[in-house]
Amino acid sequence: MDKVYNHKDVEEKIYKEWEEKDFFTPEVNPKGKPYSIILPPPNANAPLHFGHAMYVIEDILIRFKRMQGFRALWLPGADHAGFETQFVFEKKLQLEGKSRFDYDREELYKMIWDFVQSNRPVMENQLRRLGFSLDWSRKKFTLDEDIVKIVYKTFKKLFDDGLVYREKRLVNYCTYDGTSFSDLEVVYLEKEAKLYFIKYPIVGEKDKFIKVATTRPETMLGDTAIAVNPKDTRYKKLLGKKVSVPLTGGREIEIISDETVDMEFGTGAVKVTPAHDFNDYEIGQKHNLDYIPVIGFGGKMTDAALRFSGLYVKEARREVVKDLGELQLLGKTTDIKHTVPTCYKCKNPIEPLLMYQWFVKMEPLAGRAIEAVKSGKIKVYPKTMEKLYFQFLENIHDWNISRQIVWGIRVPAFKCEKCGEWEVTSGEVREKCGKCSGKMNQDEDVFDTWFSSGQWPFAVLRASQPGDFKEFYPTTVMETGYDILRWWVARMVMLGIYETKKVPFETIVLHGLVNDPLGKKMSKSKGNVVNPLELLDTYGADAVRFALVYGTALGNDQSLSYPKLQAMRNFTNKLWNMARFIDMNRIQNSKLKTQNNLTMQQLNNLAINENDKEMIEKTAELTKEVTRLLEKYDFNHAAQNLYDFIWHEFADVYIEDVKNRIDEQSFIILNSLFLILLKLLHPFMPFVTEEIYKLLGGEGDLIVSKWPVKNA
RNA sequence: GAGCCCGUGGCUCAGCGGUAGAGCGUUCGGUUCACAUCCGAAAGGUCGAUGGUUCAAAUCCAUCCGGGCUCACCA
After folding, report:
1. pLDDT one-digit tens code per residue, A75-106
2. Is residue A466 located within the same domain as residue A504?
3. Fewer Cβ close by (within 10 Å): the C or N end of chain A?
4. Is the CB of A374 under 7 A from strand B?
5. Is A181 a residue whose pLDDT tops 70?
6. Are residues A25 and A70 in contact, defined by beta-carbon separation less than 8 angstroms?
7. Angle A490-500/A456-464 helices, nearest 10 degrees?
8. Are both A392 and A467 inside the same structural domain?
């Protein structure tokens, strides 16, 4: 054996061997009970970041269960990541001096498809480098034909059940990216703004005004009421009176009362623009107001904005303020801080705009999802995360699932040109209207990516291999970062229960984020992103894996620590040298048998020396403890126990002791105990343990060896 | 505005009701042994602050301070 463990020589070789021997499929344990985890499908188009390396937790579970004899399935996939990917692709086009408008829908889709396919192996190979024992024979993509079909079916079912509807409503729209979003994709940023006080002349009463305060004067062109609080005595006598909206050529609106108006803010009177503000939209619904859209989808003022038509919102604001000043209708302006809805991707302001979109009615779905966790049908680790889950589901709004992009699953809905009738299908194309035989056109929009990934567990198991769904659904564990609990996990629960009548997974395990060494969130814009591959090169996959679970409680964020990585790398080397010691003794004492792989029971029968007996007992205890900790998803302590015991008890004390009294019997015990420790450590450090196991003459392959049991 | 998490030796973090723990770092000693060393030992903490509950609190409760995250329609 080499003097020093060299992970580079070992990892690739071993992974290939495992893959060639088909150890990653559940079929290695044909008779075991099913145990399944679906890998959260990474974006097919993007290289992995450090968060993905945390999926090592899933590999630990799968290897553990595989060794215990379960039919352990860990199913890999890739996500088309609709808007994310189209955004990246458009950036690329931009660099080439092009834009999405230079291509028709089909061309653009094809280009993105090729782009994604060419990048996809990068991500998949990184998963291999991490040592993940994923069943590649079952890998799926969210745009695979069979998956798409399932997504269509769910949509149709939701529609038929009245849980999907198409309506013209105010939605979050990014005029830069040209698409609408769900609530979750809107980020509220605190910004400095000007609060303008504007006078609206009261009709028929000369020189009388009502003053309102607003940060968005340009939207006044679409005002359809002024609202005050019914309790506000200041305005009681003005209720029902008309005012004329400045700059609109005398358009008249009414002063109404609504209890949502905050008397303390501004003047206590608020302008109501139902077509461009969520609050105002609500008020508009209640009071049956008109909707006058003055901002268009391109971010420019519409014709309804009269002479401001064609101006961008910002310009329009400036002009409106200027004109109001000239008309003596502008009061004071003050500086305030307020939160502005912005696009999570491009950071430009989100405009609430009125449009027809497909919505999923969430309340009934959310209720069942809440119930699933409250009743214990789904367990959450760590338990504190339940709060996040409930918080989201208890305050949920209907989900806008339409996106105005091409990269994704196109909505299978067709509209008749003639009679306007909509028909939703399970993917079949409708050319003729069933009612009037008019020509039908498919909706241009695609689904929100999360609508398809929200169906992933049942979709992927129905599509992977015949029998998989029956065998492996519900899956055992869903493990992912807590940051996508709402985006993804909660939606999987809702859609899973809806479509299959069963929870999609029995347990949710959530890990924390990996921050940079200074504790800051890694992000491209900050330039502090650490490429996991570099660390794999430097420290080896085993060390990186171990460092990620060691010393951090489940669900807590951690900062990348180079000293820790180094310590873990040293640990792999320590293991290697323990093996070298054992190996050298075998060679030097050729009469020593290579008999090993004895069970605890056999070792107990063999041992005479007190120290040997004690070590057997301690190893048995460790086995019990590590097993117990893994069962309760306490990877941190399982890892710490292994580390401490192997280094500071087994190596520092026991090996030092055996050194001075080595004989046939003690060698067999030493060797066997070490192999047991390798088994316990294997889920965490699969490469070095497998390599050593084989060098020391372990039977077969460690990855499929039997998990040690205390009393066997 | 509301909620959540974190604040433990120089650094990174475990512990979360029963005499303060680990890794890294530091200091001293030993060894070249299977070990890019490794082994042994030591120094170093009134567990953010203040009150309370308890026989007993880093651990439970309250308030406050500091750091982070999330949610929310403040015009």
Report:
1. 999 999 999 999 999 999 999 999 999 999 99
2. yes
3. C
4. no
5. yes
6. no
7. 60
8. yes
